[in-house]
Each structure stands twice: as C-alpha cells, then as structure tokens.
Amino acid sequence: MRVNQQIRSPEVRLIDEDGQQVGVVATRKALGLAEERGFDLVEISPNAEPPVCRLMNYGKFQFDLNKKKAVQKKKQKLIHIKEVKFR
Predict the structure, then answer these.
(1) Boundaries of every domain in the chain
(2) Which pTM value belongs to this model?
C-alpha cells in the first residue's frame, strides 16, 4: 500500500475521512488537503484508473489491521489427531 509521497499517479480519485467521494483531483492537491487536515493519503485501489486514495490516519489503520489478524489467528483451532490401537 502506497502512502503520501509514494503515490506516483498525477491524479487520484479522492475519498475524504468520512467516506464521502471528493472526486478526481491532482495528487499534489490531495496531499496538501491531507496535510491540512492532519491525515495521511493512502492508496486504496492502485489498479483503478485513476487510483483511489483515501484520507486516513495510517498508523491507526495499520494497528487495526494487525489487531484483526491477531484475532483471526487466535480463532483458528488446531486439530490434534489421536491414535487408538486395538490388540
């Protein structure tokens, strides 16, 4: 996932922090808007034309993602096969 200055596209489809679509804007303008509001510009869908980017707190996003992975890992049950021998 590309964040802030790593985004290479000249234009992006911007979604604000509330989930409202702003529209297609220049990447520099989107970065300025993100900095002004105190958020990061995160590329959500790089394969779209133009790429879809969202204003969000990237650190919190990463934390929540790691937390979800930990919960999923915790829910997994290991299957132990027991062997019974008859004589």
Answers:
(1) 4-75
(2) 0.72
